[in-house]
Amino acid sequence: MPNAAPDNLTTFWDGLDGVRRAVNERLEAWLPQATQPPCRLHQAMRYSVFAGGKRVRPILAVLACRAVGGTDARAMPAACAIECIHTYSLIHDDLPAMDDDDFRRGRPSNHKAFDEATAILAGDALLTVAFDIISRQMDKPGVASRVVQEVAAAAGWAGMVGGQMADLEAEGADPDADTLHFIHAHKTGALIRASVLCGGLAGGAAEPQLTALGTYARCVGLAFQIADDLLDETATSEQLGKTAGKDKAAKKLTYPALYGLEASRTEARRLAAEAIGALDPLGPEAAPLARLAEFIVSRSS
Amino acid sequence: MPNAAPDNLTTFWDGLDGVRRAVNERLEAWLPQATQPPCRLHQAMRYSVFAGGKRVRPILAVLACRAVGGTDARAMPAACAIECIHTYSLIHDDLPAMDDDDFRRGRPSNHKAFDEATAILAGDALLTVAFDIISRQMDKPGVASRVVQEVAAAAGWAGMVGGQMADLEAEGADPDADTLHFIHAHKTGALIRASVLCGGLAGGAAEPQLTALGTYARCVGLAFQIADDLLDETATSEQLGKTAGKDKAAKKLTYPALYGLEASRTEARRLAAEAIGALDPLGPEAAPLARLAEFIVSRSS
User: Fold this and answer.
1) What residues of A are in contact with residue B124 (Cβ under 8 Å)?
2) CATH label of the domain that carries residue B137
3) Other CB atoms closer than 10 Å to residue B266's CB: what's the count?
4) Nearest by CB to B152, which of A131, A145, A149?
5) Cα(B23)–Cα(B76) distance, rounded to whole angstroms?
6) Following DSSP, what letter does each residue of chain A receive, concatenated?
7) What is the pLDDT of residues B60-79, one digit of tens each?
8) B-contacting residues of A 158-177, CB under 8 Å?
9) Percentage, residues of chain A above pLDDT 70
């Protein structure tokens, strides 16, 4: 990480490019080749996985693994699996029957680049391959089984899918704090929390370390979603690589809609501080996780 | 199983109702309650899981587990997980962008009873909960991890999803034996094979037993799909509980379309005989698996 200025969060973030490259290299190896039939399915899976995602979740997993003394290689299966699940959720969310979005990361969304049937199946295959990667690439079956448990709970009805359903149901409804918190904690929070916990599990974390990581992850997950809500209101479509202001247009329940911009920024910063405080028991190895929490919130202001 | 006539396959099949009840009771416990929010998601999941399915895959898992000396309880997590995956695949296959079917098992299909977005999410949640059930309910992590591997491979790009993609691509194309075999082996064959193998794994099968079960499963899976193709051509919609003759109308590539009705019946019977022969090393405990192979083929003639 040459010339990393300690007060420059962007430099810290760019300095994580080595992790991104390692994650991409593993995804390249663990996903089906585009030349293998049915080619169209595998092309559609790769189209969205290699669309220039920021790899926030894999980076969280790797940094959490490092924070408890694990090597990057140990974190890779969980990191890549969770990125596959995140990607599948974007593909399905963009479908006409769901959020109906034609663009994602500056390119046509999956069902526009391919077609609806292919997009549904590519999403299904990415969700499934996540569990294949964890169970096949993690060398300790006991840890693999625990990671499958965490990831499945975070991705399914008790997590991400439940949050997306609640989000769809809340569209057009009057703003309501309980519903908003349910959506945020489930739709994005659960998988971000799983990224951190599974990185820790892969690195051999002891229970008190997992507790510390769990608190950090819960706060970072909420802060991340508030930052995302703020960006949707304040950034341009060009900056986002997707349609901006869409939440407002669809009357989505968001943090700024309920509490206003300034109170939302304050809450995001408060959550980041709480996340950083939770890392105390982990010592200096956890410093990059603290920087990441700062970076995530800095996106919003 | 009172009054079970040895030469009456229907009585044998009905005699498996105890297994069906046990599977339903476990699914009832392991799926989210319909009263728990987001209720609509959980209602949609349960609507399709408890729609009167024949539970062929769970029964295969339980009988394979028994064949190697395991208790029914050991087989239940894999059995229920695979039924959840089978159900999700039906929900997604029925979507307008896929096979566009308004009826399933004599009732409105999931997206007609609810809506498209809910059906997509209910499918996603059922796929995910399958891995939750395996990793949480199997008491040996090493076996759980292996079962996750088998199920993920059978359900994903290298199995069921790949087969469904190939099936969609082949619609309207000239009949071609290689494509047909690819579709059958992947779309239905892989998950049926996984049912048998995972039942065996849960029951503690040794490698030679798994090899025997694998051959049995491959043959039964193909026979099952040929029987299904035949039923679509020869049965009425009322008998099927779904639209009959749909494959032909959609110019789907089927066994009867390629080889004719009589040759298809002969091949299904040959495969059942090969399946039964493969069970020899397992001894008398495997007799019910043999009966099941006979029953599956008898559906076609």
Assistant:
1) 88, 92, 123-124, 127, 156, 161
2) 1.10.600.10
3) 14
4) A131
5) 7
6) -TT--TT-HHHHHHTTHHHHHHHHHHHHHHSPPTTSSSHHHHHHHHHHHTS----HHHHHHHHHHHHTT--HHHHHHHHHHHHHHHHHHHHHHTSTTTT--SEETTEE-HHHHS-HHHHHHHHHHHHHHHHHHHHHH-S-HHHHHHHHHHHHHHHSTTTHHHHHHHHHHHTTSPP-HHHHHHHHIIIIIHHHHHHHHHHHHHTT--HHHHHHHHHHHHHHHHHHHHHHHHHHHHS-HHHHTS-TTHHHHTT---HHHHH-HHHHHHHHHHHHHHHHHHTGGG-GGGHHHHHHHHHHHHTT-
7) 999 999 999 999 999 999 99
8) 158, 161-162, 164-166, 168-169
9) 92
Q: Specify whether the backbone of A241 is left (phi greater than 0), alpha (psi in -120 to 50) or beta.
A: left
Q: Does the beta-carbon distance from A124 to B98 stay under 8 Å?
A: no
> In angstroms, rounded to a whole number, what is the distance separating the alpha carbons of residues B32 and A276?
34
B173 pLDDT tier (thresholds 50, 70, 90): confident
Q: Which residues of B touch A156 (CB under 8 A)?
A: 124-125, 128-129, 132
Domain that residue A263 falls in: 9-298
Q: Is residue B156 within 8 angstroms of chain A, CB to CB? A: yes
The candidate with the shortest Cα–Cα distance to B131, out of B30, B59, B42, is: B30
The Cα of A46 is separated from the nearest Cα of chain B by a number of Å equal to 12
Element (H, E) at A99: none
- Give this prediction's pTM: 0.94
Q: How far is CA B169 from the centre of its chain?
A: 22
Q: How many domains does chain A have?
A: 1
Cβ within 8 Å, pair B41-A135:
no
Which of A35, A92, A131 has the most B C-beta neighbours within 10 Å, making it the best mutation to test the interface with B? A131
Domain annotation covers residue A117: yes
CA distance B82 to B72: 15
User: In the structure encoding, which two tokens stand for residue B279, read together?
Assistant: 């069970």
Residue B4 lies in a domain: no
Phi, psi of A70 (to 5 degrees): -85, 160
Note whether A155 contacts B: Cβ–Cβ < 8 A.
Answer: yes
Decide if A2 is inside a domain.
no
Task: Confirm or reject contact between B134 and chain A (CB < 8 A).
Answer: yes
Task: Look at residue A1 in the predicted model and tell me its pLDDT.
Answer: 30
The phi, psi pair for B240, rounded to 5°, reads: -85, -25
Give the closest of A88, A123, A156 to B132, CB-based: A156
Q: Is B6 part of the contact surface with chain A (CB cutoff 8 Å)?
A: no
Amino acid code (one letter) for B164 = Q
Q: Is residue B61 part of a domain?
A: yes
Give pLDDT tens digits for A130-166. 999 999 999 999 999 999 999 999 999 999 999 999 9
The two structure tokens encoding residue A274: 């709480």
pLDDT 10s digits, B230-270: 988 887 655 666 666 666 666 678 899 899 999 999 999 99
- Classify the C-alpha dihedral A246-A247-A252-A257 as positive or negative: negative
CB atoms within 10 A of CB A2: 5
| Amino acid identity, position A180 | L
